[in-house]
Amino acid sequence: MVSSNGNARAAIRGWLQENVTGGRDVPNDEPLIENGVMTSLQTVELVVFLEDTFGIVVEDEEFDEENFGSVEAIATLVESKAA
Amino acid sequence: MSARPEFTLHDLLYNSVARDPQRTAVVDGDAEYTYEGLERESSALGAALAEAGVARGDRVGVYMDKSWEAIVAMLAASRIGAAYVNVNPLFKAPQVEYLAGDCDIRVMIGDTPKLEELQPKTIQTAFYRGAKPEGHAARSYVDVADAMQGEGLKEDRKVSESDLGTILYTSGSTGMPKGVATSQRNVVVGAQIVSTYLENTPEDRILSALPLNFDAGMSQFTTSLRAGATLYLLRSRLPGDLLKALRHHEITGVTGVPPLWALLIRSGRSIRENPLAHLRYLANTGGRIPQANLDELRDLLEPAGTRIFLMYGLTEAFRSTYLAPEEIHRSSPEQGNCIGKAMPNTEIMVITKEGKEAAPGEPGELVHRGPTVAMGYWGNEEATQKAYRPNPLAPPELLGVERVVYSGDTVKRDEEGYLYFLGREDAMIKNQGYRLSPEEVENLLLGSGLVHEACAFGVENPAVGQDVIAVISLRNGGEEGAVDRIREHAIKNGPPYMVPKEILVRDELPKTGSGKIDRKGMSSAYANG
């Protein structure tokens, strides 16, 4: 478990590179849903990764487009929980 | 209250307006729209389309995210006797340009960012939603918001149930989508049949969770329109948004594809604490729900009174069978994947290779007969002849008069008349509820210019149906980073569900005796590790 949440952005971007974009780095503000970068099932996999890596729990109702719209939004959610 | 006879899509509208003009027809985000508003704005947009030169029988493209405007557009086209063509909003420019050419779309209603991606002169007139588009995808532009507030039609055009109502595009084996030409009658009867067995009423609050370009997704709109119910538009495919929509709007009916239920189950903890008491029914289509998920779904929802319908259908005939909630135990693999019985007003035949009706227990092809049998494939007589054939069981005096749909699915029927799914004849891949031809994936990869040969196939993955896997050989032996660039090309030029999960590189692809790429061989080699 990684406790330093300053790494949230880097960790999410690394995960996306490895599992979704085939090596392309995704800017923090790129719209992930609008641009169709991630499918919903990939988003589910990302949540599992975040929960394991940062020791957080994403509540059912938090798992929405507002919180998962960009790397920045996801990192903000993670930081609000890990703080 | 004397209802109009139901011949066209807009007849369904008039009946619901007459029943209760102030009832909410559509909820899109925070905005609510009444049936009266739907009548008024579809009349105004219809008049604007006619003004832009749309004639009876013309095709009008709708290329936008699911929205109030997209709903109004379908009715506007119908009222002037034009056919609407709902374009998958996930499509990228190459697929849309192909579609516009294939069915000669000259007028398109679309979201500005989507329209801006299209090649110059793809269409004549674009009705845009958003800021005025830059570039020259269309020769002239009209703001759809203005058009919907303009003066309405003096009267609707003369439209009959035999007119083309819509073209539903599905994945085609030529590497590009093919259009199923669907009449007004097909659309209306489909709504009658589905709203009959789901027992829809004006009190229903129906969730539209599927895309409108998908026959089963259009069905929530047409059934809601017919019942005079309220339709809630959901664009998000994330579980939190789904859960919030079901709760906050007290949804009474939801239809979806298996991956949607996997997302719903993810919210199981919250649903157990606070059950979805308003949810009257859940209907599944577009593939089998993995048994573990179905068991969990039943456990989550049935105690609160939700009834689960399992449906089977093909775009060529809209919907075919359903398994009633009381019989749901029959759907398990041990029982043999039961898909139920024919929907109302429909006959399902099981036909052997010899063209005879199969005996109970004997495998045969599922053949659909009834009023939802569509007109055929748009501009593709060869494919039409193959799928739409004379009724093999018609009396000799009527042979060749009526056409039925050969589904390509192998089934059997038991003594009680229940149908069981055994397999498919073609190589279609089922991914996230989409039916996808391998050729379309291969075409997308070849379009990168870096690929010499490509072969795509589906590999079973209960979470998504099938994963898309591609095996390729590279042009000129390949270069550094070629696979990454091919993947990027695919993401940029195709919808997400068409992008392979894995792209494997070989020096050369294995061939069959006749010199074709050996898809079956590679698929089973992959499955066996």
Short précis:
The complex is a heterodimer of chains A (83) and B (529). Chain A has 83 residues and is mostly helical. Chain A has helices at residues 8-19, 40-54, 71-82.
**In what range is the share of β-strand residues of chain B?**
25-35%
Secondary-structure element order of chain A, N to C: HHH
Spans of chain B with pLDDT under 50 lasting ≥5 residues?
none
Per CATH, the architecture of the domain at 9-185 in chain B is 3-Layer(aba) Sandwich
Round the Cα radius of gyration of chain A to an integer and report it. Answer: 12 Å
Q: Please identify the structural class of chain A as seen in this structure.
A: mainly alpha
Uncertain segments of chain A: 1-5
Strand content of chain A: under 5%
Average pLDDT level of chain B: 93
Which CATH class of chain A applies here? Mainly Alpha
- Separation, N- and C-terminal Cα atoms of chain B: 65 Å
> Major sheet of chain A: size, sense and barrel closure?
none
Helix content of chain B: 25-40%
